[in-house]
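Each letter names a residue; the fold follows as tokens. Both lines appear below:
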Amino acid sequence: MVAHMTLEFDPIDEATANWQRKRWAAVDAMAAATSITRAHQILVGRIDGALAPIGLNFSRFEVLALLDLSREGQLPLGKIGDRLQVHPASVTNTVDRLERDGFVRRAPHPSDGRTTLGVITDEGRAAATAGAAALGEIEFGLAGMSERSRDGIVASIRELRLAAGDFRSISLAPS
């Protein structure tokens, strides 16, 4: 990870002031989008840093967690891509790496010869458990934020995702 220098000012506040001065449109949208993008960079750095000692990054952890949480510890590669909302090539690349590390193996689907299953191994289950613990320790990179703030982020971004067609209806996870 590249060393990060803490600035003496908020560059998003500075950009907002500059956009206002230039009378450019959608200043609030620019500030929100830039804030989300910067937060994403921060979270990926923290999450990947916590997972690195286990030999994972977030995308690899997501596949392992999905397989570990599945009923039978296996899913068609296409379904993995659908559930994680990633391109099939990304799934193939991620599963290739997980397979090389012994965390996942590929298996033919028992009834559909065109389909390949990703199957989690015992080593993969151990890595998923260790990854979940590591992410829990850093609160998924959100340590220091209140539960109320986290809930607000989820609600705000759910609104964006729904409007973008990311999913059809709001489903709330059990609390």
User: Anything to note?
Assistant: Residues 23-141 form a domain with the Arc Repressor Mutant, subunit A fold (CATH 1.10.10.10). The helical segments are 11-22, 27-51, 58-69, 77-84, 88-100, 122-137, 147-163. The beta strands are 74-76, 104-108, 116-120. The CA atoms of residues 28 and 34 lie 10 Å apart.
